[in-house]
Amino acid sequence: MDSSALQTLTAAFRAWLSARQYSDSTVRNYLVDINKYISFTDDHLLFDESTLKNYFESVSSHPNYPRTLASLKKFFQFALDQKLIEKNSFKSALRSASRTGQACLATTTESLIPSFQTYLESKKKTPATIKNYINDIQQFINWAENQSET
Fold first, then answer.
1. Contact 116, 125 (CB under 8 A)
2. Domain Core-binding (CB), which positions (predicted)?
3. Residue 44 pLDDT
4. Is 71 exposed, middle or buried (0-12, 13-18, 19+ CB in 10 A)?
5. How far is residue 82's CA from residue 16's CA, in Å, rounded to a whole number?
6. Looking at domain 3-90, what is its CATH homologous superfamily?
7. For residue 92, which phi and psi values (nearest 5 degrees)?
8. Are 33 and 66 in contact (CB under 8 A)?
9. Contact at 8 Å (CB) between 93 and 75?
10. How far apart, in Å, do the first and last CA atoms of the chain sit?
11. Would you state the pLDDT for residue 81?
12. Pair 78, 13: CB distance under 8 Å
C-alpha cells in the first residue's frame, strides 16, 4: 500500500468511527494508535496475523496497551465491514499473544511467590499467616488461568 492509499484508509476509518458516533477524543486516540501500528508494519502485511501478534508483544508493556487493543479491534472490524479482509485475524492473534504472555506470567509467578514469602517472613508474619497468604495467591492464579481458557 502506498502512502496515499494508507491516508485514504485512515480517512475512511475516521469516517467509519464518526458514523458510529464515537467521541472526537476517541477517534483521535484510535487514529494515533492505528498510525503507530501502520508505522510498525510493512504496508503489505497490515492485516497479517503474525505481524499483529508481533505488534502486541512489542507494545504489551506500554501504559496505553488496553487502548491500543481497543483501537486495533475496531480497525480490524472496520476492515472486515469494508471487505478489505475476509477474516478478522485480530482475535486469533490476540489469543496467540495471550498464550505467550501466560507463559511469561507463569515464569514470573514462580519467582514472585518465593520472594513474597521471604518478604512476609521479614515482616515477622506467623507461619500460618504466610501459608494462608501463599495459598490465597495460588488459588487466585489458578482461577485467573481458568478464566483465560474460557
1. no
2. 4-80, 107-150
3. 67
4. buried
5. 10
6. Tyrosine recombinase, N-terminal domain (1.10.150.130)
7. -70, -35
8. no
9. no
10. 37
11. 92
12. yes
Q: What is the pLDDT tens value at each position of the chain, 150 positions in all?
A: 667 788 899 999 999 999 999 899 999 999 999 999 998 987 667 888 888 888 888 888 888 888 888 899 999 999 999 998 888 888 778 777 665 554 444 445 566 777 778 878 888 999 999 899 988 988 887 787 777 655
For residue 96, the SS3 value is helix
**H helix runs in the chain, sequence order:** 3-19, 24-40, 49-59, 65-81, 89-122, 127-149
C-alpha cell at 10: 485512515
Measure Cα distances from 64 to 67, 70, 110 in Å. Answer: 5, 10, 27
Q: d(Cα 131, Cα 124) in Å, to the nearest integer?
A: 13
φ/ψ of 73, rounded to 5, equals -60, -45
